[in-house]
């Protein structure tokens, strides 16, 4: 994390159970937020990345009996962030690279590759282990900036400030 703080222009979050069907629900949640915010630019990229991060949480990151959270926000400068919070250990890593894999037709292992290719930035950060074990896997999309009057920003929750990384991984 680079220590930059930003105040989100728009903010949403939701908790999902550890079920395969929840991946579709997470995608619908992200899609509705994008439509509510009037974002159609790169919508397919955002939805695919959100689905991949949610699927990874269900498959690899969430211990049985727990769930995962999806948090998203849009900054005044234009960037849109999608985070998936899970309580599992380990750090996700790219498993596949085109031209490097001998079995390019094999199922699985392409999710983070797609996130890396479709988003402008992505990364992994630890959660506050004293309160919440696990990790945050996030991706960011640089969208056209939006001018919003200050009056629209007053209703944001005080906890909506977050730290983000600006390095492409």
From TrEMBL:
InterPro entries: Anti-sigma-factor_SerPK, HATPase_C_sf, HATPase_dom. Residues 17-124 form the Histidine kinase/HSP90-like ATPase domain. Keywords: ATP-binding, Kinase, Nucleotide-binding, Serine/threonine-protein kinase, Transferase. It comes from the Bacteria. One of its GO terms (molecular function) is ATP binding. The keyword Transmembrane does not apply. PANTHER family: ANTI-SIGMA-F FACTOR RSBW, ANTI-SIGMA-F FACTOR RSBW-RELATED. This is ATP-binding protein.
